[in-house]
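Running co-folding for guanosine-5'-monophosphate.
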Amino acid sequence: MNKNIIQLHDKKFEPFISYEQIDRAIQYIADRLNKEMKGKNPLFVPVLNGAFMFAGDLFKKLDFPCEISFVKFSSYVGTTSTEDVKQLLGFETDVKGRTVVIVEDIIDTGLTIHKIIDQLKQKEAREVKIATLLFKPDAFKGNYKVDYIGMKIPNDFIVGYGLDYNQYGRNYKDIYKIVE
Ligand code: 5GP
């Protein structure tokens, strides 16, 4: 057995994206945010739990003063996205008239972000931008633009770098993909 394979619960995962590749993708997003968001006083809204590592690395690369406020939703059970998105931790900052940048680890069906955009519109945000480290184009069902994408990936279930399989695997520095 490949010694780099990891086991979480009943499933095995193999190395897929190295931290070096992740870091390059984050730098690409950060360079664009540094150009386009400076002077807009944006509110960054990372989505827990998955985005905590991405958020930590991304914000260290931003070179202008900015505000950060985490939100939490749940839609994933096991290895599949459910249609039911529950809000567990909401917006603590007034978003009215603000530029808001949602920060996600991965966009799959796009449903979670869709719900967050709806809420931000209701709260009268001036504009909503979306930054995601990973994007699965073949699974995406949204009708909105994803503004900042670090990397496009196929429709495989992945873990590591903040992403879990039933709450385990978030701690790995690299990203792993499920072994079918
Ligand atoms: P969506 O609402 O776009 O279908 O799903 C978004 C959320 O589902 C992400 O924030 C993430 O928590 C979870 N998710 C989507 N794809 C994957 C995946 O391949 N692996 C893991 N661990 N979580 C995923």
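Result summary
Residues 47, 50, 75-76, 81, 104-112, 157-159, 163-165 surround guanosine-5'-monophosphate (CB under 6 Å).
The mean pLDDT is 92.
Job closed.
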